[in-house]
Amino acid sequence: MNRPLAKAALILIGMYIVLVYVLPLFTAPLPASLIYLYLALTLSAVLIYYTISGTTLEEFMGPIVRFLSGVDQVGPAKTARLLVLIVFPLLVGWQTYTRLAPSDLPPPENRTIHPAPPGEFVGLSNPFPKTPENIMMGKGLYAAYCSPCHGANYDGKGPAAPGFNPPPANFRDPGTIAQLQESYLFWRIKKGGVGLPVEGMPWKSAMPRWEVELPDEFIWKIIMGEYDGAGQSPRTWEEEE
Amino acid sequence: MEYENEKRMWSPLVERIGIPVILGAAVMLIAVFVPVLVWAQDAITQAMSVEYRDIPGIGSRNVIWVVAQQHLLLAGFVLGVPIFAWVCELVGWKTKEPRYDKLAKEFTKLLTSAYATTALFGGILLFLLIGLYPKLMAYLTDIFFPSFVVYCILFLLETCTLYMYWYGWDAMQGSKKGLHLFLGFLLNLFAIGIMIVPNAWATFQASPVVISEGSAIERAWAATWNPTWWPVNIHRLIANVVLGGFICGAYAGIRYLLAATKEEREHYDWMGYVGNFIGVFGMLPLPFAGYWLMREIYQYNQQMGITLMGGFLAWLFILQAMLIGVLFLGANYYFWMGITYRIPGSEQNYRKPILAMLVVLMICLGVWMTPHSLVASLEEARKMGGAHHPLLGVFGVMSAKMTVSNLMILVTFMSFIMYWRAGKQETATWAKVAKAVMGALLVIAGIAVIVLGVWGYFVPAIIRINYFSVAQVLIVLFIMLTFTPLTAALMKSAKTTTEMVWGQMPIRAGYCLVSNAVMVILLMSLMGYARSSSRVHWHIYGVMRDTSEYAYSPALGYAAAFMSLNTFLFCLLVAFIFWVATMGEKGKALPKEGLRESPGKVPEGIAPALAGGSPTSEEISRT
Fold first, then answer.
1. pTM of the predicted model, to two decimals?
2. Can you tell me whether residue B425 is helix, strand or coil?
3. Cα separation of B18 and B25, whole Å?
4. Where in B172-285 does DSSP place strands (E)?
5. Residue B609 contacts residue B510 (beta carbons within 8 Å)
6. What number of other Cβ atoms are within 10 A of residue B311's Cβ?
7. Contact assessment for residue B203 and residue B146, using Cβ atoms and an 8 Å cutoff
8. What are the angstrom distances between the C-alpha of B216 and each of B8, B293, B387?
9. Which of A130, A142, A129, A147 is nearest to A218 (CA)?
10. Among A12, A20, A26, A34, which would you mutate to test the B interface (most chain B Cβ atoms within 10 Å of its Cβ)?
């Protein structure tokens, strides 16, 4: 028997279970915003599918409309309808309340991870050639200065990392240095968390500003070592031979 | 003698009031006028140095924001519509089907009233800009004056051509049709000119090219040919077709909902189909054009590129993904409803393919809408180890987005092909082979796009951008360019098993058309904001700073409210234009009352769709 309504409910519940209970078995749990998004997509898929033709529309919406309109209902169906009509508004009210009630959680941060760099850092290029010696030196400096936070494996999992929020960047992630040009890194390393512009709010990044400790030469070489060690290459516009 | 005369003339006056009085008056005049003159001199120098004026309470920037957006949307409509009005006319002329000609004429009618409104808003915008931003305008005038002249000439030509095109429609039928088509071609040519000239002014602000030497024309030319000029031209041209298509679709949708006769229902159902088709057709290459534009921006200025794509404007692109997603869904939904409602009995055959397409679309949308940095509470972020999810974070980067947008384009294209073939039976001997080849190509293309997308994570950005993304685009284009003629050839010899029935679509199809139009308008308002706010605190990037009190970027919520306001206002304007355009028709329709079906005797269950006249499921299942 073909029961679209039951199918739709199953799909939604299944999706919910996968997102909330199954996925976390393999990886970090999803934030609520994503769960909402995916559930909303699933719901719209279901709605679209069942309203494409008159037949499916009737199969899908018919029982709902008949149930809610309450025409010719007797016995348990009648009670069920009454229950739904009472419980549903209560649910909406509860949901609204929990959304608006003050809580002790800090608000979500929409931190802009990669704000635009200041003009004077745009377009710089690494003045040092990519020789094995330079890369080696860069890696050495990295191990000394950066690995406590960014990790010996360039994965953001250094011994000091768990103490910081936002956490130190994971250079192996395709969303960090692989997207950036060398000049961008030069700026970030030189100026650190305190050098972030307004859009980089809130300014609580633990990334040190290295301009005092490290000469420019070291920074450029660290950048080389960093890309090499993380197995990434910087974003460029001209192709390198 | 003359002196005598004069003396005689003057003397009575002198005699009567006396010389001292005259002298006194002169002194007074001087006393009054000299300061006035000096003051006027002051005022002139002062006026020359006024950099900004404000409209208290509302703010000059907000006023410009609204007026400019209205002007741009109207202009988009006015430039998009003639393109496909002309194409429709051409099709009608080639196929000798009068309904295409009628459709083209109906589109052009909307054009005439929209054209005047667009010009009006252009005028308001210009006055406001001169008044509110004199410093900027003086600078732009200095650079672009030669192109102002070109613009005015183009405008004159466009206006003349439009009038001849519209008023000559009926006169130039038959043997003179060729001339009329040529007029339509000119109309579009001038229209494109009218678009690209101001585009130069706007793109100059984002990516200026200033040369200090050379004649006025040389300077204007250098400034015109700036790095983002052509990317924006192409992007806007295509987007205008999309806007025009979907707005005409919405017009048809509303007329369909209000239609009282069977003929009207059939006509507007068909018009809605054409509008939606044109909108989708334009939408398919649009992401490619957008990608090219972003690339040029990045290449021109990394800072601006980052502000847009990674910085505080990045959230706009998540909104953009949502809107485009809804648009893709809406367009496909309309196609699918078209298949099940217009081709009776086809429903069962198409359920499975539709389900498959829907699932692919939804997965693509899910990927596209997943932001790289997620909105997460502190606790959630702790568990994820940052704002990037360890697994789903990979959906956040360009490689994934490009892949899914290519796939969505493929799916939508297949929706269209499916619609095209629905209700027909191929008779060609090679039909089986052709279909098998097409199926295989499609699967290969899909896999290739995905493989390139995944591989894109492991190669340097430059390789991905220059080769992989381009290859993905080429694959999709290849599919479109081979499938279209192949299907056309197949359909030529195909015999129709079930005739398409027009005028059967349910009410939600009409609403779907309207919603698509609203999505496009929202989308254009959104990206219009992105384009101009990417200049941040510059009037002209890196050349002229914004020193007004509005030299800050508004919060995203504030900006979103303005986008909604702009969308709303534009919908009102369009509704007004449509209303004006249909007023004449009503007057004409009245005397023909006798031709209409008499009330009470509604044939074949046809009533206004809004009154619940759409066929019910029982009717469908009976057929």
1. 0.82
2. strand
3. 11
4. none
5. yes
6. 23
7. no
8. 58, 28, 52
9. A142
10. A34
d(CA B49, CA A237): 42
Distance CA B623, CA B614 (A): 14
pLDDT in tens, B204-257: 999 888 887 888 888 899 999 998 999 999 999 999 999 999 999 999 999 999
With a CB-CB cutoff of 8 Å, which residues 512-551 of chain B face chain A? Answer: 536, 542
Cα B442 to Cα B197, B333, B453: the distances in Å are: 40, 21, 17
Q: Domain for residue B146, yes or no?
A: no
The domain covering A119-230 belongs, at the CATH homologous superfamily level, to Cytochrome c-like domain (1.10.760.10)
Q: Does B302 touch chain A (CB under 8 A)?
A: yes
Residue partners of B165: CB distance under 8 A and separation at least 6: B108, B180, B183, B184, B187
Q: State the pLDDT at residue B17.
A: 58
ipTM: 0.78
- Token pair for A154: 């360039």
Q: Which pairs with CB-CB distance under 8 Å and at least 24 residues apart come from B153-162?
A: B154/B190, B154/B193, B154/B194, B154/B197, B155/B119, B155/B194, B157/B186, B157/B190, B158/B187, B158/B190, B158/B191, B158/B193, B158/B194, B159/B115, B161/B186, B161/B187, B161/B190, B162/B82, B162/B111, B162/B112, B162/B115, B162/B187
CB contact under 8 A, B617 and A44: no
Q: What is the mean pLDDT of residues B322-327?
A: 91
Inside any domain, residue B474: no
Question: Domain boundaries in chain A?
Answer: 3-100, 119-230
Taking an 8 Å cut-off on Cβ atoms, the answer to whether A109 and B387 are in contact is yes
Quote the pLDDT of residue A47: 93
Spatial CA neighbour of B614 closest among B531, B512, B535: B512
Phi/psi for B496 (5° steps) reads -80, 120
Tens digits of residue pLDDT in B512-540: 999 999 999 999 999 999 998 988 888 99
Whether B132 contacts B63, CB under 8 Å: yes
Contact present, B275 and B250 (Cβ < 8 Å) = yes
Does residue B278 form part of some domain?
no
Cis peptide before A202 (omega within 30 of 0): yes
Q: Domains in chain B: how many in total? A: 1
At residue B595, the pLDDT reads: 41
Give me the pLDDT at residue B609, please.
46
Per the CB < 8 Å rule, is A33 touching B329?
Answer: no
Residue that wins the pLDDT comparison between B81 and A3:
B81
CA distance B264 to B256: 7
Q: Tell me, what DSSP letter sits at residue B313?
A: T
Contact B324, B239 (CB under 8 A): no
Q: Name which of B482, B351, B511, B509 is nearest B422 in CA terms.
A: B351
Helix axes A32-50, A4-17, angle to 10 degrees: 160
Quote the CA–CA distance of A108 and B379 in Å, as a whole number.
Answer: 9
Of B299, B347, B366, the CB nearest to A53: B347
The whole-angstrom separation of Cα B221 and Cα B144 is 8
The whole-number pLDDT of residue B393 equals 76
Structural domain span for residue B37: 1-47
Q: Which amino acid makes up residue A212?
A: V
